Hints:
The chain is an alpha/beta fold and 514 residues long. It is 41% helix and 17% strand. The strands form 3 sheets. Strands 1, 2, 3, 4, 7, 8, 9, 10, 13 and 14 form a 10-stranded mixed β-sheet that branches. A two-stranded antiparallel sheet has the order 5-6. The protein has a two-stranded antiparallel ribbon with strand order 11-12.
Amino acid sequence: MNLFIVICITMFLLTFLMMAASGGSAMEGTAASGAANASAQAPVNAPAPPEDHLVTTEHSAIVRGQPLDYTVTAGTMVVDTAGGKCELFFAAYTVEGFGSAADRPLTFVFNGGPGSSSEWMHMGFLGPRRIAFDQDGQVAQFPAPIADNDYSVLDITDLVFIDPVGTGYSRPVEGVDLSNFIGYENDNRTVGDFIRLYINRYGRWSSPKYLAGESYGTIRAIGLAKYLSDRYSLGLNGIMLISSVNDFTTMMENTPSDYTYALYLPTYAADAWYHGRLAPQYQDMKLEDLLEEVRAFAGGEYLSALFAGRRLDDARREEVASRIAVYTGLDREDILKANLRVLYWDFCEKLLSDRRLVIGRIDGRYTGPATGGSMADGEADPSAAALSDVFGMAVNQYINDELGFHTDRHYEPISLEVNEKWKYPASETSGFTQEKIIYEAMSKNRFMKIWVLCGYYDMATPFFAAEWTYDHVFLNREYEKNLMFTYYPSGHMIYMHEPSLAEFREQAEKWYRR
């Protein structure tokens, strides 16, 4: 071969190999540089994705005089809602041996506030373990011991106690704002999404489903009935409303109307009767008989006088004031000065003022020394002060020691932050009502029954106001059988009176099984 050609080929090959080597080094350098940049841009100590933290334990308690074995699953479940992710704390009680788990009733339970955990219903009412109260709702020692709850409904229905976000151990995940879960609509969505998730995850679609709410929890329960049906086609078999308030126009904390004063009067009479402040002809009556008479006066002559306003003539004003005085034990002149309009905080302070005592708003049976605080926000309410620390100590002990769920997170019994930031669909809180929602929910689902439980001595949600609200739910006659009212000689928390708790338990068995 020509030597010149050989030299050219050799030079070409050497040049090609050198270029390939140079290009490869450049590519490797670019890749290494890219990897270094990616590493530099990666977040340092990025939070781990949220996970469920659940503990399952086995227990036994005496319920209705018989041993009952049950399983508790307690902890936080991650719920992904339109407002973001949260870790929602719950305690689920399930029982085997009562037929198929899928066919056994399932009841979701919560308190109100808004901003309250479920500790009250959990540790005082429905669960298989309860704070050891005497029959009048008092404890013999502090911290109070926890005992079996013979009046629990766990032998009838499985129970899931829910702490809404911001209460108990429930919190938004890191980086998500608490306000996304606060408010009527946000709360319905979050709690409703949890209920759907629990039912799906634990295979309870064929179970009869119930809600049980207390105080603001009764508003949540009615709102959930609509949300679950609209969003998930998830119908309910029943709703238990303890100390119901489904129309804010009946509440005296809001701008009271004439009928608001009338709706509180029977509760004033019940409290005065309990403390022996009535004239003998009324003090000697049975409470139920007295209240029938006061109801008739409040909804008739009294309401008519209030409606007349300044057009009411002096003679009739004097007559109505005298009737209010004999039914409430208050001074007639004080009633006249108030233009026949008695505010509950004045009633609480004046009924036993000669003994320098105030009575409770939450439960009028309780008394305490006058402190000068606000009765409306609970600061001066002896019935609230007597219970908050008792429940707070007990729920922490119970969840940690008996259920075995441990966390450094604080258990929030009542969140003032949640309460103060709460929002309603209407621009004015005082205008929020649920009669239309109740009517539609009961009319669309002929299998759904509602049970309203009222305490005679409850000034937070007076029983006559609950009656008025449901009197304005204009159900068709064939659906009225699904609505039931029961009454107890107790306060806002009807279970703080053992005879009332025992009566409830007998009625609950019939209600669930009818």
